[in-house]
Amino acid sequence: MNLVARIVARDKNLSVLVLMTASTLTVLVALLGGRFLSAGNLQSMSSQVSEFGFLALAMGLAMLTGGIDLSIVSAAVLAGIMGATVMSGQLVPVTESNSNALMLAGILAALVTGMMCGLLNGVLVAKLSIPPILATLGTMILFTGIGMVITDGQSVPISIVSYSALGATTIANIPLIFVLMTVAFLVMGFALSRTRFGRRIYLFGENSVALRFSGVRNERVIILTYVTIGLLVGIAAVIMVSRVNSARVGFGESYLLQAILVVVLAGYNPYGGRGRVISLALGLILLQSLQSAFTILQFNPYVKNLIWGSLLLLVMVVNYYVARWNPLPVSPSLGPKEPGSASGSTGSSVAVTHRPLGKDADPDPRASVEAGGQPG
Amino acid sequence: MKTSPFRVIFNRPSTAMEKYLLTIILAYIVIVALKNPLFFSLETLFDMLRSGSGVMILAVGVLLVLISGGIDVSFTAIAVVSGYTSVQLMMALGIDNVLFAFMVSIAVGCLLGAVNALLISRFKLPTLIVTLGTASAYHGLMATVLGTKSYPTGAMPQSMVEFGSANLVVINSETGRYGLTVFLPIVIFVLGLTWFILYRTMLGRQIFAVGSNEESASRLGINITRTKLFVYSYSGALSGLMGIIYFSELKYVNPVSLVGSELMIIAAVVIGGAKLTGGEGTILGTILGIVVVQLFQSTLVFLGLGSSWNDLFFGAVLLMSLGVMYYRQRIQDRKSLVFATS
């Protein structure tokens, strides 16, 4: 029992999440059986989750710094429109010979647009000190506006046939885009837990003032973080465009709430500094399973809205109680302290402060973050 | 310099943001008027007053929430939910009275706002995420329970249609008849009431105090929960009021409209000088912010630009205003060696 309690105490949120995911999956399999576990459903689940996974990863990154990025969906749409415009044949007519080059150019255009959007957010937040929520609110409106002016609200179709194959390509029955997302999760997990940049992101979220006074160029960390978010958003755009084969303003609007939902579900602290990529992967599995169960059960979009909204509230209330609950009946000072957590190899680990509410002796998040989990 | 009329009316100097917005508005009006003299007419003004009334009421609620240090994205959902609930109730009971509609709608809005407040203060949760959740949940609940049937002008309660087209003053001209909407006195009443609450009552002081520093406010003996309960219920009630005005103005009851414009309204209030970190914000600034949004939304055609330019213009103005506002703050902070975390 003691061992179980100790494992649970190591990361309470993760434990709760594992339990929730496992029980949800059990219920869904018992309820829907073959329809849920069919190869077709699993395949469509894994390609839907990849489209969204990149956005969730981006939102998670913003939340680690204590910010939020409201512009991810509109940036993705803008990136998609840029990519689609290149590939639509409007600028350069598509021929047999240049279609591959155009496709590459289109993908590049989407990625660069995404990164530019991220750069703008980063500069606004870091250099002008606009709170992230406001800066990204502004850029959200701006990106949508640019997209509207370029397309006039029309959808931009893609005339390169092989591009749509990208979204449908499978490797040993696993969608290519799912493999791509898995790689992204592993890379981000590694980057956040094992690199100096990752540690600085967590530290910034924990206490940005302390980070500044430990000699880290704070502003550069933030700008880089938002550019990374932009890159993830750009990849999401590439996937979105290839799946729908066109781009249009207003596409994927519901993703914003869902991205916030899954990140909060994964136990990320909206005030920054806490959250693990492996939890995010679990949260995605949970959300996607529910999503496809709703589709199988043919719920209408309003019922889904109701469920997502209530779920978001419920999760936050549960997290509130989880944060206060201590499975190990020992005094906080004897709580598990990761060896070496306060003696990092760089000067950046000066401010190892716990939040005032952390009476429960959480293990240091930076030390306990492990290389990103493999979703699915 | 003589006392400016501004000082006389508001008993305070104008804030930097208010001056900045006034300049933008005046410059914009001059440009539009030069480009297209048709813009300068009572008709345009009356049109803008009519379409801006509902938004103005919502913005006042948002202002209060922002001053208290929170952010609410559920108010458009609350407006639609309470307005639609009240219309459905009128249809079911066969009561065709606009006062009844207002009463039901305001009560429902108030209730939904109170739920927000309780969730936020009981569990100490970030207001943005709570209201994102409740917005979705409220709207979903309404659609699931009451359905999403929409009512065109002929089928909706006729008292609402009449109310929507009622005028205080009607002017006949060669271009047609146009009138000053009855929404105007309601908006003025709401502005006056809110001004009174904010600047002439203890409650108003408490809202500012909670927004500036919740910890100090609670140590002063201010009941945080009760203050927040008021703020969110008031904002909810205003949303309920707006719901009926909105449907009356459109003369069409559509339960899936309006939701999605909340961030635009928040943005308008923010460029009016309300600080997201709380404790700051003025009613005049809010009015000016809404005027900017309304100008861009309804007058770009006078410049020969399609409505697809709305967002681009507004986004750019918003970012510039935020940049100016927060960069000044940053320089000031650096001078006095303040490195706040938020």
TrEMBL record, chain A:
It is found in: Cell membrane. Pfam families: BPD_transp_2. The keyword Secreted does not apply. The chain crosses the membrane at residues 14-33, 54-81, 101-126, 133-151, 171-192, 221-242, 254-271, 278-299, 305-323. Keywords: Cell inner membrane, Cell membrane, Membrane, Transmembrane, Transmembrane helix, Transport. It comes from the Bacteria. Residues 340-353 have a biased composition (Low complexity). It is a multi-pass membrane protein. The keyword Chaperone does not apply. Residues 333-376 are annotated as: Disordered. Its main location: membrane. InterPro entries: ABC_transp_permease (IPR001851). Residues 357-367 have a biased composition (Basic and acidic residues). This is ABC transporter permease.
From TrEMBL, chain B:
It comes from Arthrobacter jinronghuae. InterPro entries: ABC_transp_permease. The keyword Protein transport does not apply. The chain crosses the membrane at residues 20-42, 54-78, 98-120, 127-147, 178-198, 229-247, 253-271, 283-303, 309-327. This is ABC transporter permease. Keywords: Cell inner membrane, Cell membrane, Membrane, Transmembrane, Transmembrane helix, Transport. It is a multi-pass membrane protein. It comes from the Bacteria. It is found in: Cell membrane. It holds the Pfam family BPD_transp_2.
